[in-house]
From TrEMBL, chains A, B:
Gene3D superfamilies: 3.40.50.2300, lambda repressor-like DNA-binding domains (1.10.260.40). Pfam families: LacI (PF00356), Peripla_BP_3 (PF13377). PROSITE patterns: HTH_LACI_2. The lineage of its organism: Bacteria, Pseudomonadati, Pseudomonadota, Alphaproteobacteria, Rhodobacterales. This is LacI family DNA-binding transcriptional regulator. It comes from the Bacteria. Residues 311-338 are annotated as: Disordered. Residues 8-62 form the HTH lacI-type domain. One of its GO terms (molecular function) is DNA binding. Transmembrane segments: none annotated. Keywords: DNA-binding, Transcription, Transcription regulation.
Amino acid sequence: MKSQRPQITLDDVATRAGVTTMTISRYFRTPEKVSPATRDKIAAAIDQLGYVADSTAARLAGKTRSLLAVITPSLALPYVPEIIEGVSEVADRADAALMLHETRFDLTLQEQRIEAAISWRPDGIIFIGDTISDRSRRQIAAAQIPFVEAWAQSDHPVGIDVGLSHSDLARDMTLRLIGAGYKTIGFAVRRMGYRVEAERLKGYQQAMTAHGRAPQVFECGDQATSFQSGAQLLTMARAATPAPDALFFAGDLLAAGALFEAQRQGLRVPQDIAICGFGDYPISREIVPSLTTVALPTRALGRRAAHLCLPQAPQPSPPEPCTSSFVERQSARLAPVP
Amino acid sequence: MKSQRPQITLDDVATRAGVTTMTISRYFRTPEKVSPATRDKIAAAIDQLGYVADSTAARLAGKTRSLLAVITPSLALPYVPEIIEGVSEVADRADAALMLHETRFDLTLQEQRIEAAISWRPDGIIFIGDTISDRSRRQIAAAQIPFVEAWAQSDHPVGIDVGLSHSDLARDMTLRLIGAGYKTIGFAVRRMGYRVEAERLKGYQQAMTAHGRAPQVFECGDQATSFQSGAQLLTMARAATPAPDALFFAGDLLAAGALFEAQRQGLRVPQDIAICGFGDYPISREIVPSLTTVALPTRALGRRAAHLCLPQAPQPSPPEPCTSSFVERQSARLAPVP
DNA sequence: TTGTACGCGTTATCAT
DNA sequence: ATGATAACGCGTACAA
């Protein structure tokens, strides 16, 4: 075993097996076109040399290996790993590699990461995020790479759009709270400037206005953790006039923070105030009281996005559903579908 | 804009700028060796064509682009995204791309993913996981690629090892519980066959034995969620004789599940039973009562692992600390450092 | 300062 | 069934 050998290549295997590189390549790609005898020789050579084919070269030469890129602001948002797991499932089935790019909520970094993603010429780019700059839009268009927005529905889709309508979902959830008999329903959100949160707010406002009610929005800064912000928002809402009898949070983490705070303050949920979240994170069903919320098909979203980039991936049959739902738990009552 | 152009290459830019490919290449790699005049022409050509250099080809030709691979059982474990974020920070600074491979707790899949990672010839492979098969060990050795185990300390490290000693941490935590005056300290764990959990159990047993106490271990199956298992384990422990006055959970999620269950049962924590976790997840400081636990330097671990693979990445000065700590919160008292 | 020519490791095409 | 040869797009000696 020569130690400083730069790399074991197809040539090495070929020499050892007494054939040419082309035969080795065929051994991998169309084994049935290689005679059983040489097949054994090749297998032995590969094993002895510990050969692993170079995907970089393979991809440059033909488009043999598949590659997917995921771009996301952060992995700390609970739904992001879930979407990525969906992507990864499909990628695995299609033997595709997965590249991950974080933008850290920074638009400049996002431009860089999008360009980096394009530079690897993946079979598709799956975008979890918010706004996309014009510069990036141009590059994406020029690159001719499928670009899938997998989280929020886009007003100006760059490519394919499998995202959710966060405004419709928030509107419908508000309608169900209204239908359940809550009189003054507030909406609580962190001031973060994200499109999805603005969408959710919009949906809430639509529903309230449609029923002739005055929207009552509580906002706080984005310095603290989501849990802390939730606590703060609950306190704000309790101090308002009129004090809401139900509070719809723009995210489950905020709502969970509010539940913890309610517990600290000795408030009863939902008797003193009903609380409702958005996202259905794992914690939401375990917390006491369990959280009424909007469940999002995150994994399915990821799978769907990946399928759009990898047409060769085995499709499930029947095609799997990818729908959101409203989950009534202990923290708030919900009216049935209108 | 020709639409079905296969790809925009260096050649296209060169032609448009009236120079050869070499000059464009230099423009990117050593701009100072290109005259300002042609520099402008090139910049214009790049912009007009929306050219993005092909990293695949670049990497095959020279080793211009950097690439890192992360292999993990899942993204659903709360510490995994944190470690990856650490990796990603450093990767960004070094202009390295990041590949992600999930093994889904399946050793066969893990072998495949490790081989896939190697096939892209990354500058390093960062492994978050447990056991590594012999076959994989051989491939890793043959590939000559830095292989960093970033989560658990390995008995038989394959490559570099920046992991934590989960047994030492569990031992010290147990010692602190003993020092705090708890009489019967139980250990609760899911039967999952992971090395890190076995390590934690071992540390607990060491500490108990050292103080002449009989270890009292509670185990449950791995079918349910962590939260549900935690609830189950709490119930088991309460039914035991003697009933422990403190329960050390092998993970924070289990402990959180126990706290929720205690709340449902009307048990007071820590008066009726003290509860202690391992991992310091975000939820642990927010839950009521807040959870006493072992805090792990996950992000720093990721950064450190990445630095080992990317020597060119700008190093922080002074070198950042990467140490665990014991966090006393409401759910259990802790003795100060022995 | 700029250009020529070859190599990186694999695959596709066309022969044999 | 197997081989020879030419790409794939870029980097780098070396030459001009």
